[in-house]
Every structure is written in structure tokens, then in C-alpha cells.
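Ligand: zinc ion. Inputs:
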Amino acid sequence: MDPATSAFARTLASKCRCHALATDSAAELLSSNPISEDARAESSLLSCELAAGHDSDHLALLATAHGGDQWWWLRWDGQPSKVTEVIQIDPCDAELTQGRYADECFLPHGHPGPHDFELPQRD
Ligand SMILES: [Zn+2]
Ligand SMILES: [Zn+2]
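Predicted complex:
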């Protein structure tokens, strides 16, 4: 592939989410990883929220705890070895101000690729 074509492909890829599915459900992960008594699962099915084509491991928001102050993520490598890890990462502090409203980035701090507000909304 010539450089111009691959740059174009990267631009396209950066405009949608990865959506790789985790093999474990949030309920299973929360029962095997006691995070906090008030941890609330964000959704039952976990799919990667990073931009498509990202480097590094997949990340999905597993649960919030401590009244929403603590964000717990599932990180997995998508390889046959299925290495998964439940980790706490604060959300990214990027903001996009649009008039009176500010869009916050709901991806983990230090995430690769574009911010949440640059990607299509979740389904
Ligand atoms: Zn991913
Ligand atoms: Zn961000």
C-alpha cells in the first residue's frame, strides 16, 4: 500500500469505534473482581470504546464506583491467550467546549487515538 492510501485508510478508521467484544460479561467480571461494594456495571456487554485501528489493548468501561468517582475498566489483548485485567483509570480530562455546553471525553486517561467527542456516539 502506498503511503497516501494508508494515510487515507487511517483517517477513515479513526472515525469509528473498535467495538471488539470482551468474552466475559460485566456481571461475571464484577463477581470475580470485587472492586467496591457500590460498583455499578455500566452495561452487561462490554465492547471496546477506543477508535478503530488503535494500538495497544482493548478497553471498555466495566463499572463506576464510589458514587461515580472511580472508573474501572476492562483491558484485554484480543489474542488467543485472552489476557484480561480489571484496572482503575481516571477519565480523560479533555473537553470540547461548544457554546454553553462542554463535551467531556469519557475514555480512560492516556487513551490512544481521538477523544470520545470526536467519535460517533455509542449505540
Ligand atoms: Zn479495541
Ligand atoms: Zn480523551
